[in-house]
Predict the structure.
Amino acid sequence: MSLLREIFENLRSFVATVGAVALFLLRTLVQVPRALTRPGLIVAQIHNAGALSLVIIMTCGLFVGGVLGLQGYDLLQRFGSEDALGTAAALALIKELGPVVTALLFAGRAGTALASEIGLMRATDQLSAMEMMAVDPVRRVVVPRFLGGLIAMPLLTVIFIAIGIFGVQVVGVQLLGVDAASFWSQMRAAVEVSDVMEGVIKGVVFGFVCSLIAVYEGYTAVPTAEGVGRATTRTVVISAVLVLIFNYMLTAVML
Amino acid sequence: MSSTAQAADPRPVPSDNLVEVEDVHYSVGGRKIFSGLSLTIPRGRITAIMGPSGTGKTTLLRLMTGQIKPDKGRIRFDGIDVTSLKLGELYDLRRRMGMLFQNGALLTDMDVFENVAFPLREHTKLPEPLIRNVVLTKLQAVGLRGAARLMPSELSGGMARRVALARAMATDPDLLIYDEPFTGLDPISMGMIVRLVRHMNYALGITSLVVSHDVEELAELADMGYILAGGRVAAAGNFSELKKHDSELVNQFMNGLPDGPVPFHYPAPDYYQELLEGSA
Amino acid sequence: MRSNRAVELSTGLFVLLGFAALFFLVTQITNREYLTNGGSYTVQAQFENIGTLKPGAAVSMAGVTIGRVESIRYDQSIYKAVVDMRISSQFNRIPVDSDASIMTAGLLGGQYIGITPGGSEEYLADGSRIEFVQDALVLENLINQLVASFSQRSDSKGDN
C-alpha cells in the first residue's frame, strides 16, 4: 500500500518536474528575441561554453578516433576489408560517437560550469538583486547562456568529428598501414552529406537538452553551498541520461 | 502609532507615507508568517524593522517589492497597489526602489565600475561618458572611486556593501531598502555604513528602510522602528519608547535578555524525566 | 570586461574552427567533389537488375572513380532500371560503345558501376546512353545456375 503510494508520489513529482522544466523553457524562449538585441552577452557565453571546452573536445576527439582506428582495423582485417576502415570509422564518428561523446563532455565541462555559476548567483542573491534592479534574470542570465550552449554544441560536435577522423587516419593509415587512397576514397564513396547533417542535427538537439538542463538546475538550485553542489551533480546525471535516450530516438527516426 | 514617533522628532513631519502595508496575511506551506500585519513607512525618514530571527523580516521585504504576493491584504508604494501589478509594471515600479542585500550581491563576473553601471546600461541608452560620470560620482559618494577596477572577489565585506549601495543609488531611487546591512561587519565598516545611510537619506531626501536585529546600531540610525513578532507588529515608535515598552517580548528583544517570551530552551520533554529514562 | 577583445578573438577562432570542420566534413568526407570540381555531364544506362546499387555509388574506369550514380528509377514501359550517372567533365573521352557493368567492391563493399571502354572514335556526351550493360550478379541466380549444371551433370552420369 505504502509502496504504491510511493510510486504514485514519485510519478507525480516526475510529471511536475517535466512541467516545471517546460514552463521554464517557455519563459526562456519568450525572452530570446529581446536577448538577441545584446549579442555581446551571447558571444561571451559561446566563449564560455565553446571556446573553453575546445581543448578537452579536441583531445578526446583525437583519442576516440585513434581507438576507433585500432578496433576498426582489428575487426575489418578479419574480413580482409581493412580498406573500409575510413568508411566504418567516419560513419561511427559522424552519426553516433561524435554527437554523443561531445554531448557527454559538454555536460561535464560546460553544463556543470553553467549550473554552478547560476546556482551561485542564486545563492549570493545576485539574481534577486537583478530582479530588484528591474532586470529579468531569465533574460539577462539564463537566455544568453542557453543560446551560447545551443550554438556552441553543434560546432563542438563537428570539430570533434573532424579531429576524430584525423585520429582514425593517424592510427589506420600511418601506424597500421591501410592504403591512404582507398581509405579516403571509400570513405567519400560511402558517406553522404545527409549523414553529416544527421550528426549536426544530433549536436543541435543535444546542445538544446544539455543547456536547458544546466540553466534550469542552476536557476532552481537550493541557494546554499550544498544545493549548488547537488544541482551540479544533477546536471551531469540528467543530461547524460537524456542525451542517451534522445540519441536512441533520433537514430530510430533518422536511420 | 507613527504620530508618537513623529512628535518626538524635531525634523519636519512628512505629509504622507511612501509605503503602506495594510492587513497583510501570508503563509508558506501551511505555516503562518503574517496574520494581519499593518505598518507604514514615512517619506524621507529612516525606518527600522526589527524582530527576532524567523519573524519574516525578509519575507516582508519581498512582499513590499512584489517578489511574492500576499494571501490577503494590500501593499501600496506611493499610492500604487503593489499586489495587483503585472510583471512589467512591477519592474517599472522597482526602478524607483533600491535594495542593498546582506552581503552586497555584486555580480561576480564584472568589476566594481561595471556593477555600478549595470542598472544604467540595462535601463538607459546613456552615452558612455555620461555613464562614466554617474558611476564615478556614486563611487566617490561611498569613498570607493579608487576601487573602480577591482573585481568583487577582491573587496572586503564592508567595501562590497558600499559598492552595492552605490549601485542601488545609481538610478536615484525614492526608496532604499537595506537588508541586514550590519551583519558580519567590523566596527569601522559598521560606522561607515551608518554614516552613509544617514547621508543618503537626509542629503538626497531618500526614504530608507532598514531591516536588522542590531538594536544598538539601529537606535543610532533610525528615526523610528517596528518590532515584528507573531506575524504582526508587536510594537512601534521611536527608540526611547521602544526600550521602555511594557510588553515582555519587546523588552526582551530591545534589551537583549537571554530568556523571556522567546524561550532559551527549544521545546523538549521534561529534563529530569528524560535523564531518568536514559538510565532506566 | 577588461579582456573583451580576447574573449571576442577566441570566440571568433572557435566559431571559425567549427565552420572549417563542417566544411571539411561536407567537402572532403562526402562524395560531392564531382559536382563542385569544374563541371560534369550525365549519361544513362538501363539494367535488367541493379542488385543493391544506390545513388551516390561510384562509377569507375580501370578502378579509378570518374563519377557517381546520380539517380535510379524504374521505367515501367521497358521493365528496366534506368540509372543516371554524373561523370566529371575531365573524363570526356569514353567511347560510345563502352560497356557498363555492376560490380561489387570487396566482401563488405557496396556495388558500383565499372565501365570498360569500347573501340569507337565517338565519345559519350551529356545525355547519351550506354547501350552495352551487364547486370548485377544475383546470388540466387548464381546458385540456381550452379545447381542446374550440377543436376545436368549427374543426369548425364545417370544415363551412363
User: Anything to note?
Assistant: Residues 1-30 of chain C form one domain.
